[in-house]
Amino acid sequence: MFAELPPGAYLGKHRDPYAGSVRYHLGLSTPNDDRCFIEVDRQRHSWRDGEAVIFDETYVHWAENKTEQTRIILFCDIERPMKWRWAQSVNHWVGASLMSAASSPNDENDRTGAINRIFKYVHAARDAGQRLKKKNRTLYYALKYLVIAAIFAAIILFSLL
After folding, report:
1. DSSP-assigned letter for residue 14
2. Which residues belong to any copy of the Aspartyl/asparaginy/proline hydroxylase domain (predicted)?
3. Distances from the Cα of 36 to the Cαs of 46, 64, 67, 75, 93, in angstroms?
């Protein structure tokens, strides 16, 4: 896919959970300036037209464009090489099954994955929790630990069935 980073944009520190691929960025239309960069595991890479950067997206990374020009790159995930065939099969299954559940649409024809569909509810619950924490910290922690205990109880109960 193509990825745009407008002037003044900042993509916060994060790491991606899926270790089945490595990330490839190819500069297509970039500021060609050190103020437009991605930092991966404390190593900074500036995008340049026609130059590629490959990195492990499970490491903490973030990006910023402090220039007045939009950065456009080709953005690809490349399957991580696996030593054993069975590991490659597991990687294919995870990529096809679990990661598709987290997909987000790029246009009206794309499907939204199940994880993305429920995220708005999780996000709303988290926001409500943060508001409660500001108002009544004791009640917030009591409810938090009650929910965690209920989740563990459900896991144990379903594993016994």
Report:
1. E
2. 1-81
3. 6, 6, 6, 16, 36
> Given this model, what pLDDT does residue 102 score?
64
Q: Where are the domains of the chain?
A: 2-82, 114-160
Q: Would the pLDDT of 103 be above 70?
A: no
Tokens of 160: 């016994």
Q: Which residues pair with 26 in a beta bridge?
A: 52, 74
With 0-12 CB in 10 A as exposed, 13-18 as middle and 19+ as buried, what is 97? exposed
pTM of the model: 0.61
Instruction: Return d(Cα 151, Cα 84) in angstroms, integer.
Output: 35
- Res 30 pLDDT > 90: yes
Rounded Cα distance between 50 and 30, Å, is 9
* Residue 86 structure tokens: 């069975």
Of 75, 84, 83, give the one whose Cα is nearest residue 16.
75
pLDDT of 29 > 90? The answer is: yes
Tell me which of 64 and 97 has the higher pLDDT. 64
pLDDT band at 4 (very low <50, low <70, confident <90, very high): very high
| Distance (Å, whole) CA 34 – CA 151 | 47
**Fold designation for 2-82:** Jelly Rolls (2.60.120)
